[in-house]
Amino acid sequence: MALMREMPWHEKPREKALQYGIRTLSSRELLAILIRTGQKGRSVLEVADDLLNKSGGIGGIARMSIPELTEIHGISETKALEIQACFEISRRCALEDALQSDVISRPEAVVRWLQKELGSSLQEQFLVIYLDQHHRILFYRVLFVGTINAGNVYPREIFREALLRNCTDLLLVHNHPGEDPTPSKADLALTGRLQKAGKMMGVNVLDHLIITRNRCLSMKESGLLEEQME
User: Fold this and answer.
1) Burial 190-201 (b: 16+ CB within 10 A, else e)
2) Which of 12, 57, 143, 230 is least surrounded, with the fewest CB atoms within 10 Å of its CB?
């Protein structure tokens, strides 16, 4: 591959972005702008290719730690931090949009944020979203990490927060590290247990969302929420 300085100006990522817009760039070109410089005998685009190959695609980079990023020749700790900063900015933009949204009328904004918040995690995480009277996010908290089942998710931890904040509606969320959001028997049993506990305390479990990097299953929309209360 030709070195960057040897490429025609209109093929260089920075010049191409300035001339035609940032959205015209490929994933490798976007990464090349972040990485900025290559190594002796290797262009920055080749370094970007190495990163994409190691991560399995642009989305996989969000899963990578600083040590994993710096294993790639041409990516220093500083460059690794800058790459991580881009994904963190993206997560915070999605969160800001979600915080301004009614989760009932605009669930897609919440799902976009949750996919950035949990979708890339290699561990299961159980997050609870507490809502105000207008169904906007009051606050949220990851309460449990690890295998999610009825044995290690404690209702008292979930509903204590709701009662302290005078919150009457909440959403349950957890991620599946794979790409399949189908609920397990343990997921369904846990949902039913928490619904019943919430009903006793006057707190409504509006939905249980299962998140993957690219998909989301709503137990309410799937008719599974009502089944667990029967």
Assistant:
1) bbbebbebbeee
2) 230
